[in-house]
Design a protein that fits this description.
alpha+beta, Translation Initiation Factor IF3, four-stranded mixed β-sheet, 4 helices, elongated
Length: 123
């Protein structure tokens, strides 16, 4: 510790090989490489009570694909849940889009945007 402080303060002594230590960063790099930056989560929403768990996933930086087909039977509930999810997407600067005749909704976190351009298929 004294050698370290001396070197910072300018009172250095010549360094030797014993003053340095080899660090094995391979284990750290492997752990970092195997940890995903985000997950794609699948959800089914049948009620407004399902919204908080989905919102938590978005706030945690994950993408959620939610089946909202059960909400179609209750227009008021459908609109409340979609409003809630749109607010979350806006709050985290993410994105939201409906798919498959509005049976599914995809909500993304910050820095993930959904392209509205279709790849292949009939327009």
């Amino acid at each position: 510790m004294v050698k370290f402080l001396d070197s910072i303060l300018g009172k250095s002594t010549p360094s030797t090989e014993d003053d340095y230590m080899d660090l094995d960063l391979e284990a750290f790099e492997q752990a970092e490489a195997s940890a995903p930056a985000m997950f794609v989560k699948i959800a089914a929403i049948g009620d407004i009570k399902d919204s908080p768990r989905i919102k938590d996933e978005i706030y945690n930086g994950n993408v959620v694909i939610a089946d909202i087909s059960r909400l179609k039977m209750d227009k008021v509930m459908y609109e409340r849940v979609l409003k809630d999810l749109k607010e979350v997407a806006k709050d985290v600067n993410g994105d939201i889009i409906g798919l498959g005749d509005q049976r599914y909704v995809v909500i993304t976190p910050n820095s993930v945007k959904i392209s509205r351009d279709k790849i292949g298929g009939v327009e």
